Amino acid sequence: RYPDLAGVDGIIWNDPSKTVRVNPDRVLIDDLDSLPMPLRDFAPPELYWDVSFFHQPTAWLLPQRGCAYNCVFCSQYATNKRRVRRRSAGSVVDEMASVARDLGVKNFLFFDETFNLDTAFVTGVCEDILRRKLKVQWLCSARPDLVKLDTLRLMKASGCIELRYGLESANDDILSFLGKDTTVERIYKGIELTKAAGIPFSLQCIFGSPMESEKTIKNTMDFLKKAGPRFVSFN
User: Distance between CA 147 and CA 142 in Å, rounded?
Assistant: First the structure.
């Protein structure tokens, strides 16, 4: 019997006549703490790792959903309507503690788009890790133009081993086109603060914007050489 999918919001599907149906968007969940913890025990942790935890079991966590920015290359605007919804800091650390205790995994990747949107939230997570004396390592994606030195130092103390920054381009006109709402100067200042806190960082770049040229690509490559990231990804 063909399942009745007409009432399932948030999906695109083929009905029995193979006609494509687009259902209404699903209502966003405001209270993320109301969701159960992910089931992880069916997936061998040794099969999952990140390049910065090379061949070491790694767990992915989602501390928050959505992003307040509107970069043109990102799906967050469409999927989350620019609404940022966060778990409580205690919920995030509860999950870390559970994974560490039950699976023996001590490496974590925070898989939200921009972990450092809210300083109080970042501080809460870091302080709770330290209060519980969790011996963990973690990394996250963040915006370099939002970092603060005291917060960076707290992040390092709680086990942060890398920050992943979206540079995209070292040209202000391309950053403007991409909707990044920042400048090359602000990005570099954030990188300098990250270095001062002693946290390694990596950078992500995008080539091929309409105004891209050999000159703008060279500007980006020169910036990368000057900044000295752990690694770079090119898209």
Answer: 8
